[in-house]
Each structure stands twice: as structure tokens, then as C-alpha cells.
Amino acid sequence: WLLNTSMEGFKLILGSGSASRKEILGEMGLEFEVLKADIDERAIRHEDPATLVSILGNKKADAILERMNSHGVPEYEGEVFLLTGDQVVVHNGKILEKPLDEKEARTFIEGYNRAPARTVGSIVITNVKTGERFESLDTAEVYFHEIPGEVIDKLIEEGEVFYCAGGLKVEDPLVSRYVDHIAGSMDSVMGLSKAIVEQLLKKAMESASAAKVV
After folding, report:
1. How far is CA 193 from CA 124, 135, 185, in A?
2. Tell me: the pLDDT tens digits for 89-112?
3. C-alpha distances in Å from residue 204, one per residue of 80, 117, 152
4. pLDDT in tens, 24-78
5. Catalytic residue among 38, 40, 48, 86
6. What span, in angstroms and rounded, lies between the C-alpha atoms of 65 and 84?
7. Which residues touch 88 (CB under 8 Å, ≥6 apart)?
8. pLDDT given for residue 4 in this prediction
């Protein structure tokens, strides 16, 4: 998966330390730097998952831009875009974020034996030089066969579930074998839709080009 040649000539900053998001951007053939937002995500609440992830995606962009402005935006002739976002898992109408402890992780994962997990994510592209933003929401649903208790034990022991919304790491071989089907794309479930990233980057580039013409 490579972006077409018209998408060249920009610098990309990923505002996330997520291994999954790094992997997805790498698969897209994009080079990027990483800057983490370091905000207190649990201090920001909203009962609607779509609104929550939108707020968080934008708050992360705000925090990174503030830090960049205080240190000076790096010199670059082309456009500089910042990619931020957030994801939660919704299960039985309840918003699940990263599990706080082993008990919560077990409760989350066992719950997927009874009802599907719905991922709700935001993707925000910010033009660092102008502040203009382009945003989209993305959802997917994951339906599971029953995940055995010993597999859940091993997932908790590995520890990666504590870095994933809802303890949901579908790409883990221990988990993927128990996936019945996904309504949506795997990259959406992993936290970053390739199609949406490309769509938003194109919009951002087109807007920047139009502004130069004017």
C-alpha cells in the first residue's frame, strides 16, 4: 500500500507512540517522526464515544502544537502535517479504554465472548504551519468465537493488552485465531484506517496548494 506520487513533498509527524499506528504508516510507505502528546486522557470525559475520541484527537494536536511552537517549528520547505487521533472500544453500550489492571483486562476480554466489540476512532490531520485541520471518524465491529481462559491468562501475562483500548489487540496471533469476522477493516480495528489517512492527507495537501495559488 503506497500513496500515489501526488502525495509527496510533505513532512509527517505522528502524534502517538502506538506501535500499531507506526506499523500501519510504515505499510503505507510513509516516513514520519513521532511526538507524543502526553495529556491526561482520563481527565477528559464524554458519554458519546464519537465525541470523546474527537475531543481527544484534537486535544492531542493542541498539546503537540503548543510544544512545537514553544521550541520553534522545524524548518521545512514543504508542508508539515501532524497526525493525531484516539480510539475507544464500545461493548454492550459501555466505553472501554485501556485496562487499568489485570482484573479489568480480564473482564473486558471475557466480555467479547458474549457480544461483539465496536471500535470507534478519530483521525485528525493538522497543517502545522496554518493550523487548518481535517478530521474523520472510523468504526468497525469485531465478532469473536469464545476465547479460552488460558488464552486470556497468556494475553495478560504478555502485557500488550494494557496498551490497547478495551484490551483489544486483534492482530495478536493469540487473539486473531478466535476472530469470527470483522465488519470493517483490520487497520481500522488497529487504530488507523489507511483509506481515511490517505483521504485526509489529500484534502490537506489540496487545501495547502489552493492557498498558495490565492
Report:
1. 12, 12, 8
2. 999 999 998 999 999 999 999 999
3. 10, 32, 42
4. 999 999 999 999 988 887 788 899 999 999 999 999 999 999 988 887 666 677 8
5. 86
6. 11
7. 49, 52, 53, 95, 96, 97, 119, 120, 121, 165, 166
8. 45
Q: How far is CA 55 from CA 58, 62, 87, 135, in A?
A: 5, 10, 11, 11
120 near 163, Cβ under 8 Å? no
Q: From CA 86, how far away is CA 154, in angstroms rounded?
A: 26
Active site residue 86: yes
Cα separation, 41 vs 100, in Å, equals 13
Beta bridge partners of 123: 85, 136
**Phi and psi of 172, rounded to 5°?**
-65, 125
Helix (H) or strand (E) holding 122: strand 117-127
Residue 79, strand partner residues? 10
Neighbours of 37 (CB within 10 A): 22
pLDDT at 7 over 60: no
CB 118 within 8 A of CB 50: no
Is the pLDDT at 205 greater than 60? The verdict is yes
Q: In 10 A of CB 141, how many CB atoms? A: 15
